[in-house]
Amino acid sequence: MKHPLNILFLGGAKRVSMARKLIAAGQRRGVSMNLFSYELHAEVPVAELARVITGRKFNAPDILDHLHTIVELYSIDVLIPFVDPAVGVAARYVETYGNVVAPVVSSTLAETLFDKSSAARAFEEASLPIPSTYKSGRPRFPLIAKPRYGSASRGIEVIETITDFRRIIARRDEFLIQDFIPDHDEFTVDCYVARGGEIMCISPRRRLEVLGGEVVRTVTIDSPALVEASRMAIERLGLSGALTLQYLSPREEPDRLMLMEINPRLGGGAVCTVHAGGDLPGYILDEALGLPMHPAPCIKPGTLICRYFQEVAFFNEQ
Fold first, then answer.
1. DSSP strand pairing (33-39 vs 51-54)
2. d(CA 200, CA 139)
3. Which domains does the chain carry?
């Protein structure tokens, strides 16, 4: 792999902190890099560190062709997706052209994981514990209906009456319907799995505060149970690359962990794990550079981050 590395974010508009961590990981390895970000608009925060390339929506019919043009034009070496629709695009690009590195699962597995109904079936088939999924018969309230292709908690409805149930069940193909557990704790586990299948990092953290579906306050924790549950999910589902696993635990049964979803990409709060010693950006660089990879020796529990808004100004130079 040549120097400097040319890295293209896909939908990395707000990932300034992770971009800084990526640059720092390169510096520790004596590697310089050029950062680019593929966005719908040029005026995004990551422009502070990266050259922004105005591109297509990730569901555009010609997305792979246009992305290939960009990769060729700027000699891109690494693709890093930061939003759900970009994961499948990155996976399909690698499978089609094979001229870049991307820390992603296969496009087929990505499609399964981003369809909540398909993901729930895959988790059940792999004997991974999840909230009970409604299939048929008399409903037991409360239930929760999640849009199959939704993200950031958008469109979720709690079902507490037969009237609401009938309204949702008339469109059941659009939803995953499961038991609703109102009193619970939520956890995220950041993971990195090398292309050869070796697990480099498993870092549990507690979700303390969420805004708009994205964590803004989170702390790493020492939880052998979450580590083991995540290891089991990785091995049984054949996961690879950068991963974000979401769990909940009922407060009345704190030892019971249920897998909610798996996002096969770097999560918004994954920078907390990096602060705690999990070198997620470094693993991406090591794979791109063909360097030896070593599992994280210690993820420091009690590392808390609080995220905040900061403005980036753009000026009309005319």
1. parallel
2. 42
3. 5-102 (3.40.50.20), 111-116+182-306 (3.30.470.20), 132-179 (3.30.1490)
Residue 259 CB: number of other CB atoms within 10 A?
22
Task: Write the DSSP string, 200-228.
Answer: EEEEEEEEEEEETTEEEEEEE---HHHHH
Closest CA to 258 of 269, 270, 249: 249
For residue range 222-237, what is the model confidence (pLDDT) as tens digits? 999 999 999 999 999 9
Contact (Cβ atoms closer than 8 angstroms) between residue 186 and residue 160: no
For 299, how many CA atoms within 13 A lie in the half-sphere containing its CB? 28
Q: Within a 10 A sphere around the Cβ of 215, how many other Cβ atoms?
A: 21
Beta strands in 131-198 (DSSP E): 143-147, 157-159, 175-179, 184-193
pTM over 0.90: yes
- Residue 178 φ then ψ, to 5°: -135, 170
Structural contact between residues 221 and 161, judged by C-beta atoms closer than 8 angstroms: no
